[in-house]
Amino acid sequence: MAKRIDVSDLNIYYTNFLAVEGVNVSIEPRSITALIGPSGCGKSTFLRSLNRMHEVIPGARVEGKVVIDGQDLYGSDVDPVNVRRQIGMVFQRPNPFPTMSIYDNVVAGVRLNSTRMKKSEMDDLVETSLKGANLWNEVKDRLSRPGSGLSGGQQQRLCIARAIAVEPEVLLMDEPCSALDPISTLAIEDLMMELKDRFTIVIVTHNMQQAARVSEATGFFNLNGVGQPGRLIEFNPTEKIFSNPDQKATEDYISGRFG
Amino acid sequence: MTATKAPTEPPVQRTVRRPGDRIFAGSAKGSGIFILIVLAGVAAFLISEALPALTAPADEIPGGEGLTAYIAPLILGTLLGAVLALIVATPLAVGIALFITYYAPRRVAAVLGYVVDLLAAIPSVVYGFWGLAVVAPRMVPFHEWAADNLSFLPFFAGPASTSGRTMFTVGLVLAVMILPIISAISREVFSQAPALHREAALALGATRWEMIRMAVLPYGKSGVIAGAMLGLGRALGETMAVAIILSGGAGATLNLISNSNPSTIASNIALRFPEATGLGVNTLIASGLVLFVITLVVNMLARWVVNRRADFSGAN
Amino acid sequence: MSTETPLAPIGSTSAASPGPVQTQRRLPRFAAAGLFLAGVAVGALLSALTGFSLALTVLYGVVLGTLAVYAVSRQVEGRRKATDRLVTSLVSTAFAIAMVPLLSLVYTVLDRGLARLDASFFTNSMFRVVGEGGGAYHAIVGTVLITALTTLIAVPIGLLTAIYLVEYGTGRLKKAITFFVDVMTGIPSIVAGLFAFALFTLLFGNDVRLGLMGSVALAVLMIPVVVRSCEEVLKLVPNELREAAYALGVPKWRTVVKVVLPTAIAGLGTGITLAVARVIGETAPLLITVGLITGTNFNPFEGRMATLPVFAYYQLTQPGTATQAFIDRAWTAALVLIMLVMGLNVVARLISRLFAPKTGR
C-alpha cells in the first residue's frame, strides 16, 4: 500500500517567482519523513506540490518530476484529482466540514465523490477510520453530532480519519500540531507512529523535537535571503541530522544559532 | 537577485480537467458573460427602439417641436427632484450613520440599522401613496410661507400650490427613499475607520466629535460621496412615487412650489406609456435611453469612487 | 487650549454628586436632559402663542433644547465639550427625523388599508366589479407567478455568476463583470421595463403584453442583487474547507456544489429572499410590460396579468364611480404589499438563523 516517492530537479514557481529550487529527494515507504526549516523556506510549498495541492493557487506551477512507484505525478495525462485521492493531506488548522456530522465528515471523501457504498460498508469504514485515528472511543456515541463541536485535537484526529478513509498511499501533514495543545500533540504523534506501518508519511513541522521524536528521515530547507528560492539543504536520517549534520547551516539551525 | 525570475514567459501547464469541471466552470463563466450581454442588450434594444424617434421630423414628435424640446424639460425636472432629494438626504444620512456607528449604545445599534434599512424595503408605489396622502397636504403651509417670504429665489417664485403636489414635496419623499442607501454605505465606511486612528485621537484627549472629525470623517469622506451618488442614481430613476405625487405640468421652470412643474423622465414614461402608440412609444423609449445614460454615468462615477477608496483602504 | 477644559478623571462621569457644576466642570447627566426639556417646554410655549401645532412644537422644542444645552455647556464645560454635545444632539435628531417618515408611513398604510383587509379581498378578483366589493385575488396570483418566474430566471444566473466570481474568475473578465454588475444595480426600474418591452416587441411584434415580459424586466433588476449578495456570502466560506475537499480527491465542481454551497446555504437563502423582496414591490416595469386586467390569468406566457403594485396604482389614480371603494382597495393592496415585503424580510432573518452551520466556535 505505502509507496516510495522520488523527486528529481523540482522547481516550484508562483507565476514568475521561483519559490523552491532544485529539490532531489527519495522518500521511503512506511516511514515518517520530517521537513524542517525556517518560515518561508518553501517546505510547505514543497509538501503541497507532492499531491498537486499547490495548483489551487492561481499561477502556481512546477518543473521537474515527482514519481510515485514509477508514475510521474506531473505527466501530461495525469488528473490532479486522482493524485489527491492517492496522496492525502492533513492541514495546519483542523478543518472538519461544518455542515456535516462526525460520521459524514469521515465518509466525506467517499460521499463527495458519489462512490456507491452500502450502509453497512459505510458504517464499517467509519469505525475502522475512526479507530485508525484513535478517535473511535471518544466519539462513537455521538457520530451524528457536528464535527465542529469537538475539541481542537479531536477535530484534527477527525481530519486524519477523514484522510485515511479514502485509503491513500501517502499522507502529507502540514504542521498538523501547531494549533494544538501539548497533550493533543502527543496523541497525534502516537497516532503517526501507528499509521506509518500503513502509509508513507511526510510531515512539515516547526517543532524540531517533534521531528526528532517521530521521524526516520529529516530534510532541512533553507533560503539564502528574502526573495531567494528555498532549497533542500540536507536530507539524512533523523539521527544523523540531529547529532552530526553534514551541513553547517543545518547545525546552526538545529542548535538554535540561526540567523 | 539571480534566478528569482524565470527568464521567459512561463509555459502554460496543461492540466487534465474532468468533464464535470469543464461543464460547471463553463456554465459559471457563461452566466457572467451573459450578464455583460444583457447589459449591452439593454443599451442595444433601447437604441433600436428609440431610433425612429431620433430620425423622425420634429413636428411628428409629441408636442410638435422635436425630440430635444420634448426631453429637455423632463431632464430638468429629473435633475431638480433628484438634486433636491440629495441635498436633503445627505446630511441626514451622515447623521444617521454616525449615530448608529458611534453614538447609539452598541446593543441597539444593530437593531436601529435594521430599522433604517426597512425604509429601503418599502415599495416605491407605497411611498407614492404616502406622499400623496400625507406629505403633500402637510406641506401646503410651508409652500404658502415660502411663496410669501422666499419668492426672491427662483425656486420659490410661487404662486404656491394649494395641493402640495409639487416638485418640492417630490424631493422630500425622494430624500426619504434614498436615505437608507446613503446611510448604509456611510455606516459601512464609518465603521471601517481604523480603530488605531480612533484610539489615537481619543488618547490625545479628543472629545467624541473631535475623534470623529479627526479619524472617521477623513477616512469615510469618499464613501459618503459614493453613497450620495448611488442615492442620486436611485432618485434620478425613481418612477412611481413621482408619478403619483407630482401634478405634472409642462414647461421648464425652476419653481419648486407651483402647480406647473416639469415632470421627470421616469414618471413621464410611466404615465404616458400605457396609452402611447406609434412614434409616441419610440419617443418615450428615447427619453428612457437618456435616463439610462444619465444614471449609468452617475453610477459608474460612484463605483469608480468606491473602488478607488477600496484600493487605498488597504483592506483585503 | 487644553488647560481651558481639564479632562475629567474616569469615574467622575456618574451623576451622583448634586448640583449642576462640579469641580471637574462637567455637566451631570440629568442636567443635559433637564436643559433640553426646558428648551422643549419654552418651544411648546412659543408655538402655543403662535397658534398651536404639533410639528411646530417639536421643531421649536428641539432647536431651543439643543441651543440651551449648547449654551450652558459652553459656559460650564468650555467650547470643545459644548461642540461635542451640540453634535451629539444633531446626530440624534437626524436619526429621530428619519424615524418620522417610517412611523408615519406604516401608520398611514395600516390606518387606511385595514378598511378592506377582509377575506373577500383575497378571494375575489375585479372581474365585472365596477363599484364596491371586488378584491385583489387576481393581482396576488399575478404577483406570485411573475415573481416566481423572475426568481427562476434570476437565481441560477446570479448564483452561477457569483460562483464564477469567487471560485473561478481571474483577470479582466472578473473585473469587468464585477464592475458592470455594480453598475447594473443602478439601472432605473423603468429602464428595465423599457428593455423588456423593446426586446419582446422586436421578437413578437407590437402590442405584446405578457407576464413573462414582466419577469424578464424584473430579472434584470434582480440578477445584480443576487450576484452581489451571493458573492459576499461565498467569499465568507473559509478556504480551508475547499482545500480539505481537494485533498480528499474531490473535483473542484463537486467541492463547490457539495461543500461550499451547503456551508453558505444560510447566507444564500437570506440574500435571495431579500432580492425577491426587492423586486416584489416593483411597479414601473410591470406597468409597461404586463399591464393590468380585471380577471385572473394563470398563464404568464399568454396575455396581460394583474399584479399587486400595478393594481394598487390604478385603483388609486383612476378610481371609477364609487371613488372611495377604489381608494380603499388601493390602500389595502399597499398594505398587503408591505406585509409581503416585511414577511420576506422576516423569512430572510429566520433563514439566516435556522440554517446557519452549527460551528463550535
Automatic annotation (TrEMBL), chain A:
Q: Where is each ABC transporter domain found?
A: 5-254
| GO CC term, one of those recorded | membrane
Keyword Membrane attached: no
Any GO molecular function: ATP hydrolysis activity
Q: Name one Pfam family in it.
A: ABC_tran
Asked whether the keyword Transport is assigned, the reply is: yes
Q: What is this protein called?
A: Phosphate ABC transporter ATP-binding protein
**What's in the keyword line of the UniProt record?**
ATP-binding, Nucleotide-binding, Translocase, Transport
State the Gene Ontology BP annotations.
Answer: phosphate ion transmembrane transport
From TrEMBL, chain C:
Q: Which residue stretches belong to region Disordered?
A: 1-21
GO MF annotation terms: phosphate transmembrane transporter activity
Q: Please provide, in alphabetical order, the Gene Ontology terms of the cellular component aspect for this entry.
A: plasma membrane
Q: Does the keyword Transmembrane apply?
A: yes
Species name for this entry? Goekera deserti
Q: Which Gene3D superfamilies match?
A: MetI-like
Q: Which PROSITE patterns match?
A: ABC_TM1 (PS50928)
Record lineage: Bacteria, Bacillati, Actinomycetota, Actinomycetes, Geodermatophilales
> Which InterPro entries would you find in this protein's record?
MetI-like, MetI-like_sf, Phosphate_PstA, Phosphate_transprt_permease
UniProt entry keywords in alphabetical sequence? Cell membrane, Membrane, Phosphate transport, Transmembrane, Transmembrane helix, Transport
Q: Which residues form the ABC transmembrane type-1 domain?
A: 140-348
- For this protein, the parts annotated as crossing the membrane are 30-48, 54-73, 85-110, 136-165, 177-204, 210-227, 259-280, 330-351
Which protein is depicted? Phosphate transport system permease protein PstA
What this protein is reported to do is described as:
Part of the binding-protein-dependent transport system for phosphate; probably responsible for the translocation of the substrate across the membrane.
Topology in the lipid bilayer is annotated as: Multi-pass membrane protein
Gene Ontology terms describing biological process: phosphate ion transmembrane transport
Q: State if Transport is listed as a keyword.
A: yes
Tell where it localizes: Cell membrane
Q: Which family does it belong to?
A: Belongs to the binding-protein-dependent transport system permease family. CysTW subfamily.
